[in-house]
Write a structure and sequence with these properties.
The chain has one domain: Rossmann fold (3-Layer(aba) Sandwich), CATH 3.40.50.880. Helix content is 25%, strand content 28%. It contains eight helices and 18 strands. Strands 5-4-6-7-1-14-15-18 form an eight-stranded mixed β-sheet, sandwiched between helices. Strands 10-13-16-17 form a four-stranded mixed β-sheet. The longest helix has 18 residues. The two termini are 16 Å apart.
């Protein structure tokens, strides 16, 4: 299989009132070129939800995603995998020509994946899988799950290590550029929450518009950072490709 671990796909514009308008997601850092390279045909796109039962939110973001693909790279059919379609999961996965693991709350999505045994269902599929944000994080074997919601960073029961889909050993921290100045529970997200967790793992901070393509090797496309041993090192720029594994 081929995998893309993306910070996000630039699927919509958002105005000051938080209204979203789907758009052509473009070809920044060759993302469209790589999707075209590894998608064999354009019959069925499968959107895998981040929450098993939050159908309203799933439908909202799935609709935006489908409309963006219609403007950029149209498929004949679009499907959603969540609690409403779990009974058809094997069929949906088998006929998918592209699987998109959407973003959301990492632990919530992780639990959903475990509930439906997605790890064993997809491991032998010959199809491009794209993970966006949380979806990319949950593709790892050992998922690094940093706190995201208020109170999580000070909750002693919050688990920062989860078992994921086992598709890669790479841990990504998406939206790195947005998180540089972000604080959570009065802590700096990067310096005080994430970096202390990097003494026993490598974490790749990827900006919006950057991604990691995994084929025979792992390639970082676009601006990215290595967070390791409590230090931050810029390792790549936009419009460049770096082999990281």
């Amino acid at each position: 299989m081929k995998y893309i671990l993306a910070s996000y796909l630039d699927l919509w514009d958002k105005d000051e009132f938080d209204n979203r308008t789907p758009k052509n997601f473009g070809n920044k850092n060759q993302i469209l070129d790589n999707i075209k390279k590894y998608v064999k045909k354009y019959d069925n796109l499968l959107f895998v939800a981040s929450s098993e039962y939050d159908s309203e939110t799933t439908d909202f973001f799935a609709d935006l995603t489908f409309k963006s693909f219609e403007l950029t790279l149209p498929f004949k059919n679009y499907y959603i995998l969540d609690s409403r379609t779990e009974n058809k999961m094997d069929e949906l996965l088998e006929k998918a020509d592209l699987i998109f693991l959407c973003g959301g709350h990492v632990p919530t999505q992780n639990q959903f994946f475990h509930n439906i045994d997605l790890k064993n269902k997809i491991k032998n599929l010959d199809v491009l899988i794209i993970g966006g944000s949380a979806g990319a994080m949950n593709m790892a074997d050992n998922v690094y799950c940093p706190p995201e919601l208020e109170g999580e960073s000070i909750d002693p029961n919050f688990k920062r290590d989860l078992k994921g889909l086992g598709l890669t050993n790479i841990n990504v921290f998406p939206h790195y550029d947005e998180c540089i100045l972000l604080t959570l529970d009065d802590k700096k997200m990067i310096e005080e929450i994430v970096l202390p967790d990097t003494f026993d793992r490598k974490v790749y901070g990827i900006n919006n518009g950057s991604y990691i393509l995994i084929t025979d090797k792992s390639y970082l496309y676009g601006e990215g950072y290595l967070l390791y041993n409590g230090l931050i090192k810029k390792i790549n720029d936009d419009d460049n490709i770096l082999v990281i594994d």
